[in-house]
Amino acid sequence: MKRTLVALAAVAALLASCQGRTPARDLASVAVFVPGVASGSPIYEMLVAGAEKAVAGIPGARLKVIEGGYDQSTWLDKLRDIAASGEFDLLVTSNPALPELCAKIAADWPELRFFIADGYLEGNPAIHTVLYNQAEQGYLVGYLAALVTMDRNPGGPLVAGLVAAQRYPTLDRLIQPGFEAGLKAVDPGFRLEYREIGNWYDANKAAELARSVFDAGARVILPIAGGAGLGVVSAATELDRSVVWFDGAGYQLGPDTVVGCATLAQDRLVEERVKALLEGKRLFGTADIVGAADGYVGFDPGGPAYAALPAELRLRFETAIQDLREGKPDFTLTGF
Amino acid sequence: MKRETGDLEPLAPVPPSRNVEALRRLGLSAGLSALLVAVLAFLASSDPGSTLAGFFLSPFRARNAVPSMLEAAAPLAICALGALLAFKAGHFSLGGEGQLYAGAFMAAAAGAAVVPGPAGFLAAVLAGMAGGALVAAPAAAGKRWADADVLLTSFLVSQVALYTVDWAIGGPFRDTGNNLVAMPAIPAPSLLPRIMSPSTLTPAPLVALALAVGLWFFMSRTREGTMLSLYGRNPLFARLQGFPVGTLSWLPIVAGGAAHGLAGAFLALGSNGTAVRGMSGGLGWSAIGVTLIAGNEPLAVPFAALLFAWLDLGARQAAIISDLPPDAAMIVKALVIMAATARPLLRRLGGIMRGGRP
Known about the structure:
The complex is a heterodimer of chains A (336) and B (358).
Chain A: H1 2-21, E1 29-34, H2 42-56, E2 62-67, H3 75-85, E3 90-94, H4 98-108, E4 113-117, E5 127-132, H5 134-152, E6 159-164, H6 169-186, E7 191-196, H7 203-215, E8 220-224, H8 229-238, E9 242-247, E10 258-264, H9 266-278, E11 287-290, E12 297-300, H10 304-307, H11 311-325
Parallel strand pairs in A: 1-2, 1-3, 3-4, 4-5, 5-11, 6-7, 6-8, 8-9, 9-10
Antiparallel strand pairs in A: 10-12
Chain B: H1 18-44, H2 48-56, H3 58-61, H4 65-88, H5 96-113, H6 118-146, H7 150-170, H8 204-221, H9 223-233, H10 235-240, H11 245-248, H12 251-269, H13 283-293, H14 301-321, H15 328-341, H16 343-353
Helix pairs in contact in B: 1-2, 1-15, 2-14, 4-8, 4-12, 4-13, 4-14, 5-6, 5-7, 5-12, 5-13, 6-7, 6-12, 8-9, 13-14, 13-15, 14-15
């Protein structure tokens, strides 16, 4: 009995000491929810970097990065845990799937606010979203893929590849149509070979599918596959073919293979919006769409494989980028 | 030394009842879990104080935490009861994961197809149970007609079910308007009602509790339960006694599958509102651990499930407010299961160390 009392007293003392160390709730407490793993994913690395910069500029604000992992079925529970912890005022995240999950959480925790980059939801008073016009991003890499295909194999089949992790509305409605528009802007005879991996991590399967796309005559593939995209790069390197990359600087993944990277200025966007929200700007309830004209969708010319392309090709491509910034062709979106 | 006539052997101590033994095992598991959590907090976290607060305080502090923990424990307990029924009959079924996933899939399909409301709910529950039973059926049939090893067949069929359901949710049954890989949403009137917002609590924990009491009653108070238990311990004896061994060789496996399917249906009919790819999330495997920790006693299962639910929620909360890896709960659960199942061995080792016979 005595031993039990001593044990209980020890546990009570331990808990009391823990409670004392629990951080107090701040007015500007930010949780960054990464729906995946930040390391190795440029879009999520930029999400974290942007939020960190924003919070660093606001006295008294604090930030916690929480990785949700690749299992989509657990994201809702993890978001609920973040809300239930009562530790945060603003939840910052990035993924097209997140708006509807966050809307479910917002209904139960009306005091929590959300900023979601790379997603679109209008009219929820607790949520501000910004969608990138990824039709423009797809157009850029499609245009470059077409030019490279025709340069590497003059008179050959007009085929380019798209290897995706899975189908989702942004891919179906923006990325793939934009990519095809870019191909056809160079030559209307271009055809797209599409393959689907089924997940965001299986690089071996991605490599296998990429080989089948190259066998079908393609010279360049666009992977939209997260970590699995590395398999596409390795297959292209092995077969001396090329890859165009999406969302961030991918040149280091295959310096001789990745001929171009369409970029999103996610770090800049997240920094600007989070800072504005923490400063009290009334953006909740609104949904914006940003693109090439305002500099959030662009191209990184800093890769060795891009520099090695013929100057004439690069000049034609850079003219296309400039035209896109000026609205030619026009991919204006008013909603999603 | 020769004993003198009249010397009596000392009576062996009366063994504690199975329920008391199960409770003792549960208490030890909970204590061991707390100890392991504390060790992990000091080894794996740079802020042990916050980590301990996350584990021990956060799951009980937030207004929704305890009800949500009960909700998380419900499918785990229902699966564990299904596994326990099969174990009691001597069938070591490892197919729970696939049975649960198939149940969730079938429930989501039926819930979305049938008219919203009680009919949709009932259809989803029945379809879920049918899905789980269907995945269990090949192992049951193999046992009944070919005396196939249930451990192997149930595992293999479950793996097939996992891949098939993955494909179905991501393929022909996918809601293409959803960025998640998920099936179309079940209409709200067909879902389990939430009874304590903002927590996710539904009546599912009550169902789990009722099933635990029902299974305890069946196993300990009915002739059929006794027959099942005796068959599980000695099938030859059961046959010689004239028990219906043919039925006992397959029915508990299918019933266990239906229980897993029911748990899957509750997952789909709960806060998810549909079947999401990967949503079984190891629950079928965890349920086996729950059964072991509960010492195969139905009444102890809800408490063991609650212990696991606390470990999961505590680890997630600790990851949120400190830097503990969220998978820490897996390590603790694995060690607790090992300790719970190794107790007879430890007891024997203790005896040896005290100078007794091995």
